[in-house]
Amino acid sequence: MAMADMQISPTDDPRGSPGKEQQAAGVGILLQIMMLVLSFVLGHVLRRHKFYYLPEASASLLIGLIVGALANISNTETNIRTWFNFHEEFFFLFLLPPIIFQSGFSLSPKPFFSNFGAIVTFAIFGTFIASMVTGILVYLGGFMYLMYRLPFVECLMFGALISATDPVTVLSIFQELGTDMNLYALVFGESVLNDAMAISLYRTMSLVRSHASSGENFFMVIVRFLETFVGSMSAGVGVGFISALLFKYAGLDIDNLQNLECCLFVLFPYFSYMLAEGLGLSGIVSILFTGIVMKRYTFSNLSEKSQQFVQAFFHLISSLAETFVFIYMGFDIAMEKHSWSHVGFIFFSILFIGVARAANVFSCGYLVNLARPAHRKIPLQHQKALWYSGLRGAMAFALALQSVHDLPEGHGQTIFTATTAIVVLTVLLIGGSTGTMLEALQVVGDDHETPLAENFDGNNGYIAPSYDEEASSGNRLKMKLKEFRRSAASFTAIDKNYLTPFFTSHNGDEDEEDDPMPSSRRGTFRGRG
Amino acid sequence: MAMADMQISPTDDPRGSPGKEQQAAGVGILLQIMMLVLSFVLGHVLRRHKFYYLPEASASLLIGLIVGALANISNTETNIRTWFNFHEEFFFLFLLPPIIFQSGFSLSPKPFFSNFGAIVTFAIFGTFIASMVTGILVYLGGFMYLMYRLPFVECLMFGALISATDPVTVLSIFQELGTDMNLYALVFGESVLNDAMAISLYRTMSLVRSHASSGENFFMVIVRFLETFVGSMSAGVGVGFISALLFKYAGLDIDNLQNLECCLFVLFPYFSYMLAEGLGLSGIVSILFTGIVMKRYTFSNLSEKSQQFVQAFFHLISSLAETFVFIYMGFDIAMEKHSWSHVGFIFFSILFIGVARAANVFSCGYLVNLARPAHRKIPLQHQKALWYSGLRGAMAFALALQSVHDLPEGHGQTIFTATTAIVVLTVLLIGGSTGTMLEALQVVGDDHETPLAENFDGNNGYIAPSYDEEASSGNRLKMKLKEFRRSAASFTAIDKNYLTPFFTSHNGDEDEEDDPMPSSRRGTFRGRG
């Protein structure tokens, strides 16, 4: 899958002793593969014995931590050690794309689109709230000498990067235990889309910071944010549509062209990612939307065998990348220099992100419930579960690592250390306690929420019921929200009447055959690592 | 698939402007993906129209050459250009492993093992002859002022590296046209194994060269060669056997563990490769034998779905890597500085490798025919086809690129330029004319060689017929050869009675179900790029 050499800098010269270098690389990679195998086997054994207190992600993180600590103590050769370090280029160019694509690609369209309004509210509006609340609290904390003091823009950058949640562990436990389908769709959809939002916010704040001297106004900030978000989204959706048309008309779905079909199919996501990066946009946002579009339209233009193959292929690649990311993260946390002088910063950050996530979930939950008819409201225990499932993972880590380069004078280092601590704590603690939490909230088990589950069938016609009868009884906010919901419903109508017939060989009438809660080990519904 | 960062050197610092670097990387990779897509589409269109004069490999090479020439003329930004360069680390660590593994993995055991003696003769003994003949002729040429003069050891290094043949184009045309199964097995098996031999020889000669001052004797040379070859082979076979036992006893072939099964399966080849590299052996030789062993034993311990998947997976990965290598090669040829001052060297080298390959094929053909019973002798037109199919590809190119670092004073540069020219000429000329050649030799069409094809069934019992009746009539050489053949036959008996029952869940009785000449686009029988 790797497409080009990582040796960017022209200054390094491997010509000294390529044999020696290659041998060191071999040893480094060998150890990494052994850790990968160990993680998979350990994860499997733990799951077999239904030991939910140490999910696979936590196990991988621990393995990385332990091996990193050992490597730190022992006197490993430096050139072997170099092969272990966390390099953002490698992470952003080769590990993250398959993980993010898979999270878009494994979205099951029906539950996702029937909760579309709520998901978008939580992911876009809610993430914005969470970022702002965290940023402001951290700034105030610094102002009151509770914690290390950062400039306001840098507080907002920290708020943005720490708002990217990572549901992989929670979702895998959801799958093991079985939970309400709407809750699952909410948690999954929110965490998929909120990365895009967090990245765009982080980038925007970073730009604001570097242009602070030239005095950009608030309007320009919004323009920049829209540029990143809408531009990347359009690029991703555009590439997805092009791929759909290509596979619709190229006639590759005949028998012995399976390999050609699959080769072309797997190149498109990477194309989308690199296109956005090349344009200076966010590749991650772009590939995410390419994943959603390719699953909805391109996928059905493939031959049946290729469909099975690409699904298993992306699942495999993203599992490997994800496990590797957790190992890598643990290893790097054990190896990097951290500035532990600001323990207060870490403590209060954890407190603040909890508050910020509550502000996100419960305010957006309130808004969504205003717009929804009585029988479809999001119950409080679902909101609590959503609040609880906000652990931080690879995306926050990667952005924090980037902030080390973006911010001067040890500010980035402080943010990085705090993020690292937050990632480890949330993955280990929240990951380990999710099972208990889900049982305490009584959202375990598939069938006990029948009224909600029924809604899926009620929604099959793609038009949510009971709009007009309630329109007069609401206040203005309610009216606005209903309009928004209506537009979401009309989007599904456009999808059915125009997009599906145009981009696929089907007429848009048939149901998606996806089993929304697959029983596979790490289900088709995936989070990101 | 990529497992670690390529930024080996600690001297380079991407911290300057990671955003800018990443954008340049994005543009570079984007162009590479576009070339890949173009190659696949072009190759498909050409094959559709049965235009055999420009096979896919040639098309990819030409695309790379053209884009490289354009990039050379135009004023591309240097940091984008850096993303295109051919780096040995990237090539050896990420592109070559899947290609070589696939060539071992796609070996169809039955035709391969029933021609085992002949293949080993051609690959081991024949490649040794070809290397020596080329090396000596080049040395003599230099001695007689016909061409650039190189020291004797360097001539042997050149002889070794240029003896690595690349059958991808020829084999894909064999498949399109349909040819005799024994001929196919010979061409395929020989070119798979001769890479291992060529690499081991090259490494040995390189070691001899660097220790020339300390005066190693001939005995040590042989020990070093055996160290590389046998050591790498044992590592590969060992890893393959371990994987077979793991999958036999882990009980992963139940329904919902497919992803775990596949994840572990795809990690083993890479493990074998890196293990050998880490031990200072040849990863390529090792992964090749891992491929053969995993196909024979591990593969049958997988669940049926996983079998389908891993087969398609390795096929896909190696197609991508292979096409990419040809593009990459063309691009690099257009970009690198070449010392064209030694045109004589190129001209005579081409002549000499033709002579050397004739010495290989016809002498080994003679030996093999001495040992074979009358109805199984290799006909002359098969030997001619084998001689003709010796085009040079990625392996020779990669070794030549390495020789630029290994050899001083422009010697490596001369070898590199000559190899480059040979690769381009043989891929374009031989690749383009294979169809015509096969028809001229009348080896096209599957069924016309029924006596040979029948032998497969005759050999099912794994013991070649008619040994003893002829034993008394031969001379001593013939006796020796028969003993060798007998040992090959006893190997298959060991395989059937001990290895297969031990390493798989089967009893070794059932037939392999492989269709030996698959009709897929680029069949399961693959060469290397």
Automatic annotation (TrEMBL), chains A, B:
<feature type="region of interest" description="Disordered">
    <location>
        <begin position="502"/>
        <end position="529"/>
    </location>
</feature>
<feature type="transmembrane region" description="Helical">
    <location>
        <begin position="410"/>
        <end position="431"/>
    </location>
</feature>
<keyword id="KW-0630">Potassium</keyword>
<feature type="transmembrane region" description="Helical">
    <location>
        <begin position="385"/>
        <end position="404"/>
    </location>
</feature>
<dbReference type="InterPro" id="IPR018422">
    <property type="entry name" value="Cation/H_exchanger_CPA1"/>
</dbReference>
<keyword id="KW-0915">Sodium</keyword>
<keyword id="KW-0633">Potassium transport</keyword>
<feature type="transmembrane region" description="Helical">
    <location>
        <begin position="119"/>
        <end position="140"/>
    </location>
</feature>
<dbReference type="GO" id="GO:0005886">
    <property type="term" value="C:plasma membrane"/>
</dbReference>
<comment type="similarity">
    <text>Belongs to the monovalent cation:proton antiporter 1 (CPA1) transporter (TC 2.A.36) family.</text>
</comment>
<keyword id="KW-0812">Transmembrane</keyword>
<keyword id="KW-0050">Antiport</keyword>
<dbReference type="Pfam" id="PF00999">
    <property type="entry name" value="Na_H_Exchanger"/>
</dbReference>
<keyword id="KW-1133">Transmembrane helix</keyword>
<feature type="region of interest" description="Disordered">
    <location>
        <begin position="1"/>
        <end position="21"/>
    </location>
</feature>
<keyword id="KW-0406">Ion transport</keyword>
<keyword id="KW-0472">Membrane</keyword>
<keyword id="KW-0739">Sodium transport</keyword>
<feature type="transmembrane region" description="Helical">
    <location>
        <begin position="270"/>
        <end position="293"/>
    </location>
</feature>
<feature type="transmembrane region" description="Helical">
    <location>
        <begin position="223"/>
        <end position="250"/>
    </location>
</feature>
<feature type="domain" description="Cation/H+ exchanger transmembrane">
    <location>
        <begin position="40"/>
        <end position="439"/>
    </location>
</feature>
<dbReference type="GO" id="GO:0005768">
    <property type="term" value="C:endosome"/>
</dbReference>
<feature type="transmembrane region" description="Helical">
    <location>
        <begin position="52"/>
        <end position="70"/>
    </location>
</feature>
<feature type="transmembrane region" description="Helical">
    <location>
        <begin position="313"/>
        <end position="331"/>
    </location>
</feature>
<dbReference type="GO" id="GO:0051453">
    <property type="term" value="P:regulation of intracellular pH"/>
</dbReference>
<protein>
    <recommendedName>
        <fullName>Sodium/hydrogen exchanger</fullName>
    </recommendedName>
</protein>
<dbReference type="GO" id="GO:0015385">
    <property type="term" value="F:sodium:proton antiporter activity"/>
</dbReference>
<dbReference type="GO" id="GO:0098719">
    <property type="term" value="P:sodium ion import across plasma membrane"/>
</dbReference>
<feature type="transmembrane region" description="Helical">
    <location>
        <begin position="343"/>
        <end position="364"/>
    </location>
</feature>
<dbReference type="InterPro" id="IPR004709">
    <property type="entry name" value="NaH_exchanger"/>
</dbReference>
<dbReference type="InterPro" id="IPR006153">
    <property type="entry name" value="Cation/H_exchanger_TM"/>
</dbReference>
<keyword id="KW-0813">Transport</keyword>
<feature type="transmembrane region" description="Helical">
    <location>
        <begin position="90"/>
        <end position="107"/>
    </location>
</feature>
<feature type="transmembrane region" description="Helical">
    <location>
        <begin position="24"/>
        <end position="46"/>
    </location>
</feature>
<dbReference type="GO" id="GO:0015386">
    <property type="term" value="F:potassium:proton antiporter activity"/>
</dbReference>
